[in-house]
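Category: protein sequence paired with discrete backbone structure
Discipline: computational structural biology
Format: plain text, a pair of labelled lines
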Amino acid sequence: MRFWHFVVASLLGACGHQDGIVGVLPLAAGGQGAGGAAAGFVEEFAQPSDLWQPQTELTGATTSVGEAGPSARDGYLAELRLPGHPEYTATSQVGAGYATQLATLERFHFGTYRTRMSFGACAANEEAVLAFLGYFNDGQDHDGDGIVDDLELNVQVTCSNLSRLYLTVFTDYEESPQGTLFRKLSRVVDFATGDSFETLATDSDEYGPTGNDPHLLQTEMLTVDALYELGFEWHTDSIRFFALIDGVERDLWTLTGAQRVPQQPVQILYNLWHPSTHWFPSEGPADFPAQDVPMRVDWASFVPE
């Protein structure tokens, strides 16, 4: 079996926005270029495969495949472990450049992406982001809108509060002499209350309330280390995020409009990384986790449209 190691290189402001990766992720040998996308897949993570490449930048970070998991579909899963470092501070090892990560070698395009995964917790004064996402940034402006393309379809949780799910779609991001330019939209779903919040504009990090859905009041949702099925359905002019709740697929957010939707193929990633501050609606500096934060993945699938 072949595993590839890579580093997220040429970071454009590291993580310039709390709900994005924002960097340049080079394709490894064998990956599809801008004009192509790979076929569908089902990955059980029972053994290492040529589909995935690991990244372990921090001392003590690990990614492993084929770990025993009694509640996993086939009894095996992948585990990513962000190592605890009590000597680190809020400003230590910040951003996706220090992520503990598994990423696909290939790029994939429109269709339905599903996964079943669990999330580890940390203290309320600490923070790590645990994510399943589609991502691609080669530093180019392919759509000609004057901003470097940054393609992201993010499903993210923060370890200090597992009740909140952060959903973000980026199409552009660039650090320039005139300041930070970006286009993205985000939604936060709080399963502790059923409330949701969305960013007010594509160039804004400010959130406003968007209502309450009783179906999303799920106080047991995203319980530490329990496996949950999540995913997104991606088309040319829409993206629908969803979660399986009590055996029913519930819509979390549907974003429409081709101008808001990434149009190029993306790599699929699982990763954990440390942000320097807490995420909305929390505020203030966030310490690096003192203890290990694990994330486990039972399976992943992609069905092209």
User: Anything to note?
Assistant: The radius of gyration is 18 Å. The domain at 87-299 is CATH 2.60.120.200 (Jelly Rolls). Confidence is low (pLDDT under 50) at residues 1-15, 26-31.
